[in-house]
Amino acid sequence: MPLVQPVPALGIPSAPPSLGFQGKVMATGVNHPAENPILHGEKDGINKYVQKYGNRAWKDMILYTTGKLCSMCISTLIWAGVGGAGYTSPIDGIRKAGIEQIGLPARQVVEASPF
Ligand SMILES: [Zn+2]
Predict the structure, then answer these.
(1) Ligand 1 center to residue 82 CA distance, Å?
(2) How far is the CA of 63 from the centre of ligand 1 (A)?
(3) Which of 5, 29, 38, 65 gives a 20 to 30 Å CA spacing to 47?
(4) Could you read off the pLDDT of 34-93 as tens digits, one per residue?
(5) Of 67, 78, 76, which is closest to residue 101 (Cα–Cα)?
(6) Is pLDDT above 60 for 15?
(7) Could you tell me what percent of the chain has a pLDDT over 90?
(8) What is the mean pLDDT of the chain?
C-alpha cells in the first residue's frame, strides 16, 4: 500500500478522514472516543463506505486524513485492501499537538504486511 502526502489539487479534503476515488469523496468518518475508543475516524469512514457501497472496490480507494495513520488504522486499511493512504501531518506533529500516539510508524506496518 503506498503512503502518500495528500495533494490539495486532487480536491479531496484531508479532514475528516475520507475515502476517495478519482477525486470524488465516497465516505467520511469522525472519531468517536466517548462511544468507542477504537472507532477512529478512519475506521468510521470505512464502515460508512461499506454501508453505502458494500464490501467492494477497495483497491481503487485512497484514504486521506489529517494526521498520519496510527498503527491500528493502517492495519485496518491493509486488511480491507485499500489502494493507498495519504496524510497531512506526521506523527511528530500530532505528538507536538499533545495527542499521544503509539510509536509504530505506518510505513513499518505496511512493510511488515505480506499483502
Ligand atoms: Zn487510528
Answers:
(1) 15
(2) 12
(3) 5
(4) 999 999 999 999 999 999 999 999 999 988 887 778 899 999 999 999 998 887 766 777
(5) 67
(6) no
(7) 42
(8) 83
* φ/ψ of residue 102, rounded to 5: -70, 135
Ligand 1: centre distance to CA 112 (Å): 18
Q: What distance in angstroms lies between residue 50's CA and the mean position of ligand 1's atoms? A: 18
The pLDDT assigned to 6 comes to 53
Q: How far apart are the CA of 98 and the centre of ligand 1, in A?
A: 16
CA of 1 from ligand 1 middle (Å) equals: 16
CA of 53 to the centre of ligand 1 (A): 22
The rounded distance, in Å, linking the Cα atoms of 84 and 67 is: 15
In the prediction, which pLDDT does 16 show? Answer: 66
Q: And the C-alpha cell for 7?
A: 495533494
Between the CA of residue 45 and those of 78, 96, 98, what are the distances in Å? 15, 25, 24
Beta-carbon contacts of 48 under 8 Å, excluding residues fewer than 6 positions away, are: 27, 28, 29
